């Protein structure tokens, strides 16, 4: 009987050993399969082409999401009715801060970005994105001016109708650009307030945006549909960064400009005192969130709902607009991506999505159909990342790389599993004794 029980203990060990040995082989086969299907993730980084991968569109079957068949829109949208006409009665201007950074080294082939028949170095790509930004505004809101705030030392090779370049003194280095952007917004509003007081110009509402957005609907209706706000921000369901600074609207009345300027001055103060060590692209958003959350009666749970709402922040009446409609970004985290809402008005091509912005404009130029262009954006993904299925594959491949780059950790885990099996045998033997 004793020998029989000991055999049972050793049988457990023998059963564990094949499992521990078999696991790494299974993982190796899985990795090989992923490498084959994903298209060579571990190959050397190639020249940056605008190679897009067609993938399934999220939101399929949902009644309030854009439905597509390939790049053809199946949902009924209203975008076409706004082409070449503006339904808003008030004058609206777009304001963006733009700076270029010339490289002292000639562009290498690996630094070139090819979109369609054009190849761009970094500076040329930035200018192309700025040009496309203007193009979309002139399609959907042709009566709107575009004002570019920039370093006086910059010489932007841009000559377009309805576009004004306004130099504002400041520090436009990469590390200080977000801080300078707020300063430039404040300086711009000060000049507009002065002109208003002297009755030198008509009332104009201002929408301050990043230059990597596409306006796909008439935004002038914000000021008529919500007549009681001074300043508008866009929010998302993101605990750490609920507000995106890439879209800020200010009512063009004297009171609206005063309150909008005072709000931004408070954001600048918080940024300078609390978030100077933050990442160069996050400081302003963290400062925005801090100012809003510091309001005594503000309910942060409202950020979890996809509904516009008004609140009093300091002395300003602030309108909060959902990012899902007014600052929609092709898929990422933050819990905001469940397809494209039918009422999307702004597409934000932030980060690695900028080539997709250029590709989208090329598509629209040939089709003149905004809805179909949105299907292109919805269904296509960059090979560097993309929609959920491709990002998952990329994440799995990166996990494989981490296992290979850190074999010690991988083997430690295997030895722990073996030790656990051995411990089971020891416990069995001790019980027998």
Topology, element by element:
Layout: H1 2-38, E1 48-49, E2 52-54, E3 68-69, E4 72-73, E5 91-97, E6 113-115, E7 118-120, H2 122-140, E8 145-150, E9 163-167, H3 177-197, E10 204-209, E11 213-215, H4 221-225, E12 231-235, E13 243-250, H5 254-274, H6 283-293, E14 309-313, E15 316-322, H7 323-326, E16 346-348, H8 354-367, H9 370-379, E17 380-382, H10 388-405, H11 407-432
Parallel strand pairs: 1-6, 5-8, 5-10, 8-9, 12-15
Antiparallel strand pairs: 2-17, 3-4, 6-7, 10-13, 11-16, 12-13, 14-15
Overview of this protein structure:
The protein has 433 residues and is α/β, with parallel strands linked by helices. The chain has two domains: 71 residues; 331 residues, Spore Coat Polysaccharide Biosynthesis Protein SpsA, Chain A (Alpha-Beta Complex). Helix content is 43%, strand content 17%. The strands form five sheets. Strands 9-8-5-10-13-12-15-14 form an eight-stranded mixed sheet. Helix 1 packs antiparallel against helix 11, helix 3 runs antiparallel to helix 5 and helix 8 packs antiparallel against helix 9. The N and C termini lie close together (12 Å).
